[in-house]
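Please review the protein record below. Tell me whether the encoded fold seems credible here:
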Amino acid sequence: MVDVVGLGCCCFDLLGVVPHMPGPDEEIRMLETRQQGGGEVATALVTLARLGCSVACAGKVGDDAFGNFIRRELGQYGVDTRHLLVEPGTLSQASVVLVDRATGQRSILACVPTFSELLPSQLAPGLIEQARVLHLDGVHRAAAVAAAGRAQRAGVPVVLDADVLALEGDVSELLRRTDVLIASLAFAGSFAKTEDVDRAIDHLLDYGPSVVVVTLGEQGCRGQAEGQRFDFPAFPVEVVDTTGAGDVFHGAYIYGMLQPWELMKTVEFASAVAAIKCTRLGGRTGIPDRKQALRFLRDRDSRSHPDQQRGVRPEAVGRRHLGSGHGGFAPREAHARQLPPSGRGVPALEPPPAGHDVSDRGVAHAAGRRGRVAGRPRRGRAGRRHRQDLLYGRPPDLRKAGGSLSGAGGGGRRPQEGDHP
């Protein structure tokens, strides 16, 4: 049994901080360099492992030095790599990531891997069915569609990270098998052929996902669940590097799905984890553990300005309260503050177990805490109800008892350490 199975991109990143993005025929010196693993699904799984979940990664790498690095680092974070296949004589996915020191924004130069697509027949029997959530990014498209179909039949929710790479080929069938779609603004606009975020969300909802969220970078995210449109602004932090922020958001969002939290608590938690990540160089160095993320949120509560609101747009307040009797998100007030220029208020990142040593010479040595999974995936009608509980944050015991469905703590309370094991 495993909390989350991920099938998708696993790559090697060489990150370099530059004073500015180079122009034609310009040579500049990197101010800082770092070697880390990357990839949408892979980094989301690392996030989940850091937060205490058990995770397994399926996909492919080559038998080159990059492939060895990718597998070794994932294992050191606590990710099960037994289903991450190695194809002899091929090159792994690798990227050079240039990070602008002034803005924290990055440009990515991606190498083309030479390994073949993972086939549906290469997915181990029972791998998908044993998971509580399946996470995809559209890589290995035929295998991803097959895995999503297996997940649906087993009552396992499917979460899709839809970025621009997912636009390669026909992604429509995969969207139809997705329960929670979290898309980048670039994907949403290109796929829906519109610059209007709300129209893009409407178009994506037509394919059947129960929840659609579009990430908007420094503007936060916008989405819809159970007929209710919502906004959530990004947490203000001193940004060092935005690499992997969306991948980390996905991982933390899935973590929230596995807790007895209502939807907006999950979005808030995911936004906080992604914001903390951005305070360090690389897609994984800054990923916090659960205690660090909750401390970050408590700090925001204790220093918030009462005249500022977070959560939903003003016009949504007073509408049908989906957190009571419907298990969706509960419109509520929440507060934010602007950090001082020094960035004080961002918690110091504690090293993960086994000694976190990320340098130009080595890899991150971090053993993600592995959690236990209670119960097997449910099938049939019970499986559909179980999947909906995870999608909308409905604690099954509260739903059956007719109690409050807005999360374990109810109402507008933030996630707390005691809300889950």
The radius of gyration is 20 Å. The chain has eleven helices and 15 strands.
